[in-house]
Amino acid sequence: MKIIGVIPSRYESSRYPGKPLALILGKPMVWWVYQQALKVEEIDELVVATDDERIAECCREHGMNYMMTGEHVTGADRVAEVASRTDGDIYLNIQGDEPLIEPDAIRQVMHIVMDEGVEYAALRTKIEEKSEWEKPGVVKAVTDLNGDAMYFSRAPIPYNFDKADAYLLVGLYAYTRDFLIKFLAWGQTDLEIGENGVEPIRALQHGAKIRLGISNFPTIGVDFKEQIPEVEEMIKKRDHI
């Protein structure tokens, strides 16, 4: 079974343009993500997928494998293009704005998608603070008793935070190649767009099953420049710099 790790990376971002190239301790953000993914020995091939020459140049400069793609509305669509052009069995969607991603979290989602009958896997983690549950930038996940996704939303769900556990969707996914080919062909759906680009909803609307593992691995997605100093301090502690 061939496992391909893909780091979808685009330059344009409404909240933080040029984010993949933002310097963290002197290295671009995408480089830090790449280094963490390299620690997962099970990955047979690792590639940065981008449509921007500036990111491609960064990859060449820092010795990172990359693939130029067309323009895409979501990271999953970009990963799906990589799948359509390569010969792999399992594809990992490793977010390019999570320089602190834990290799064990990548392994966890990878093993879930290898279970029989699973073609799309993701991770969720419990929301401890009500203020986090209320943030539109945090995608909430609701599952059935088997851990399969029922819905995702930027709205605060479930309705009563004090009566039911709430979970956020971790930006780390694994898919089979066959699923990605279908996903790319479907195109965006009304609910996906209505939730401001929550791409797993596309799969749910087409009847696909998404298995969500519970993860306790901490991570920080970088959405704003002001978060960089915090990330740098966490890397210093982790790497004893």
Walk me through the structure.
The protein is α/β, with parallel strands linked by helices and 241 residues long. The chain has one domain (3-218): Alpha-Beta Complex (Spore Coat Polysaccharide Biosynthesis Protein SpsA, Chain A), CATH 3.90.550.10. Helix content is 32%, strand content 23%. The protein has helices at 29-38, 53-61, 75-85, 103-113, 130-133, 177-186, 190-194, 200-205, 228-239, and strands spanning 3-9, 23-24, 27-28, 45-50, 66-68, 90-94, 120-126, 140-143, 149-153, 167-176, 211-214. Strands 1, 4, 5, 6, 7, 8, 9, 10 and 11 form a nine-stranded mixed beta sheet that branches. A two-stranded antiparallel sheet has the order 2-3. Strand 8 and strand 9 form a beta hairpin. The longest helix is centred in the last third of the chain and has 12 residues, at 228-239.
* Share in β-strands: 15-25%
What's the tally of helices? Answer: 9
CATH architecture: Alpha-Beta Complex
In sequence order, what are the helices and strands, one letter per element? EEEHEHEHEHEHEEEHHHEH
Gross geometry: globular
**What would CATH call the class?**
Alpha Beta
| Biggest sheet statistics | 9 strands, mixed
Structural class given helices, strands, pairing?
Answer: alpha/beta
What is the helix fraction of residues, given as a range?
25-40%
* Global mean pLDDT: 94
Please report the total strand number as a whole number. 11
* CATH fold description: Spore Coat Polysaccharide Biosynthesis Protein SpsA, Chain A
Total number of domains: 1
Rounded to an integer, what's the Rg over CA atoms?
17 Å
Measured between the Cα atoms of the first and last residue, the distance is 37 Å
